[in-house]
Amino acid sequence: MTIDFVRPRLALVASALPDGPAGREALSRALGGGDVATVFIGAAGRGEGAFQDFAQGLVPLVQEAGAAAIVADDTRCAGRVKADGLHVSGGSQEELREAIARFSPKLIVGGSGFKTRHDALEAGEALPDYLFFGRLSGETDPAPRDRDVELAAWWAQIVEIPCVLMGGSDLGTLMAAASTGVEFVALSDAVFGSPGAEGERVSAANAVFDELARSRAA
C-alpha cells in the first residue's frame, strides 16, 4: 500500500505549565516560535476551580495564535472557557461515544488511552475527530514509547481519522516520531522543559518536519 506523505504538524501539551503569568508567558513564547496546530490543556492534579482559572488564561492565547485549544476531561471547563475541543483521556469507549454524541460537531472531540489495535479500531467506529497515542500527561523519556509509535504508525497507514503521537522529551528523537506518517506529533517537556527557549524549541521542531517533507519529496 502506498500512502501519500503528509507533513505532520505540531501539537503542544501545556498541562504541566505553571499557573499564572509564568505559564501564560511560556505558552506565548512557544506559540510565537512557529506553526502550532493544537494545544492540549489538562488538569494535571489541579482542582476544578484552579483548572478553570488555568485554562481560562491559556485558551485565548491559543486561539489568538490560530491554534485549537482542547481541554481534557472536563466538559464544564471546556464550555466555560470556550475551548475549541474536548479530549477524553481514560480509554473508555463509552465515555468517548457519549462525548461525541453530546458535543460533536460543535467541538472537536477525540480521545486517548486505547492501548491495543482492537480498542483503537472500536474507538474509531465512533468517528472521533482524532485519536491520541501516548500519555496526555506528556512524555518524560527522551523518546516516545515503542508501543505508541507502533500503534500510531499502524493507524496512520490504514485509518483516515487523524492521529496524534506523543513525542519524547528530546527533540533529537522527533524525526523518528514524525516519520511514522501521523498527522500530528505532540510535545510537552521537549518544548516547555527549556524555560525561556520555548519559541526556539517550536521552531526547531518545525524545522525537523520541514526536513522530513523535503526528503520525502525528493
Write a brief structural summary.
This protein is an alpha/beta fold and 218 residues long. It has helices at 21-31, 48-64, 75-80, 93-103, 117-124, 146-158, 174-178, 189-192, 198-217; strands at 9-13, 38-41, 68-72, 85-88, 108-112, 130-133, 163-166, 184-187. An 8-stranded parallel barrel has the order 1-2-3-4-5-6-7-8, surrounded by 5 helices.
How would you characterize the overall build of this protein?
The structure is a single chain. The chain has 218 residues and is α/β, with parallel strands linked by helices. It has one domain (9-217): Alpha-Beta Barrel (TIM Barrel), CATH 3.20.20. The protein contains 9 helices and 8 strands. It has helices at residues 21-31, 48-64, 75-80, 93-103, 117-124, 146-158, 174-178, 189-192, 198-217; strands spanning 9-13, 38-41, 68-72, 85-88, 108-112, 130-133, 163-166, 184-187. An 8-stranded parallel β-barrel has the order 1-2-3-4-5-6-7-8, surrounded by 5 helices. α4 (93-103) links the parallel β4 (85-88) and β5. The chain is globular, with a radius of gyration of 16 Å. The mean pLDDT is 94.
User: According to CATH, what is the class?
Assistant: Alpha Beta
Helix content: 40-55%
Rg over C-alpha atoms, rounded to the nearest angstrom: 16 Å
Cα end-to-end separation:
20 Å
Question: Which secondary-structure class do the elements indicate?
Answer: alpha/beta
Domain Thiamine phosphate synthase/TenI: 24-191
EC number: 2.5.1.3
GO molecular function: thiamine-phosphate diphosphorylase activity
Keywords: Transferase
